[in-house]
Design brief:
The chain is an alpha/beta fold. It has eight helices and five strands, in the order ααβββααβαβααα. Strand 2 and strand 3 form a beta hairpin.
């Protein structure tokens, strides 16, 4: 395998990390006390030429965990009725275990070392996911404990916008504000945005880095 081919592998592109796009809708801002209401997860893949694409999409409506707080301002904002039986919600424990299994399988298939969360304003989603993982008391957590890829920061650098809707439009993607604040829609748009940011850097010649000048460059 040539150096160029190695750099086109997903496990070489992000320092052996397996990027997973996450969006979480909640009933507040405190990850330890406020309920998780929705989680959407999108896995990514790299094609043979090194272009990043969306792969599989997973979406869960979540039952508020026992003793959790439901803030009226939060559910008024995201328009989620936590107790609507038509949501088809499942327990937080079941959803988290499914997510962790998906990520662990992806890590093995891609030959990566650890999952890394890709999200818009990623510290919010990361904190809620880590708190939920802790609540289900699983011994295995495939995600990096503190490193994330934040598309808000990346978009601020590339297109000068940090709001998801504005960043998508600035980079040439459509955005429907009527569908915003749904975990599924926001995760899809975040995945589209992240792929375009990564692929644009490649189109501009920023990746693979210095292959012509550094013939002995490490593949991490």
């Amino acid at each position: 395998m040539s150096i160029t081919q190695k750099f086109n592998l997903l496990n070489s592109r992000f320092r052996s990390f397996y990027p997973v796009v996450i969006d979480i809708e909640t009933a507040g801002f405190n990850p330890k006390t406020d309920a998780v209401l929705e989680i959407a997860l999108i896995t990514l893949k790299m094609d043979k030429l090194g272009w990043l694409h969306k792969e599989n999409t997973f979406h869960f409506h979540i039952e508020p965990f026992k003793g959790s707080t439901i803030n009226s301002d939060a559910i008024a904002f995201n328009k989620i009725d936590p107790f609507n039986p038509l949501r088809g919600a499942i327990s937080e424990k079941l959803a988290i275990k499914s997510i962790l299994e998906t990520v662990e399988n992806g890590i093995k298939i891609e030959g990566c070392s650890k999952g890394i969360i890709v999200a818009h304003n990623a510290s919010f989603d990361h904190n809620f996911l880590m708190a939920a993982i802790q609540r289900v008391q699983t011994k295995q957590n495939p995600f990096h404990p503190f490193v994330t890829f934040d598309t808000a920061a990346l978009s601020g650098l590339v297109v000068g916008e940090t709001v998801l809707a504005k960043a998508c439009k600035a980079i040439g993607l459509t955005f429907d504000n009527n569908q915003a604040h749904s975990a599924l829609y926001d995760s899809l748009q975040t995945a589209n945005l992240f792929c375009e940011l990564v692929n644009r850097w490649k189109r501009l010649g920023g990746w693979p880095i210095n292959l012509k000048e550094n013939k002995n460059i490490s593949t991490y």
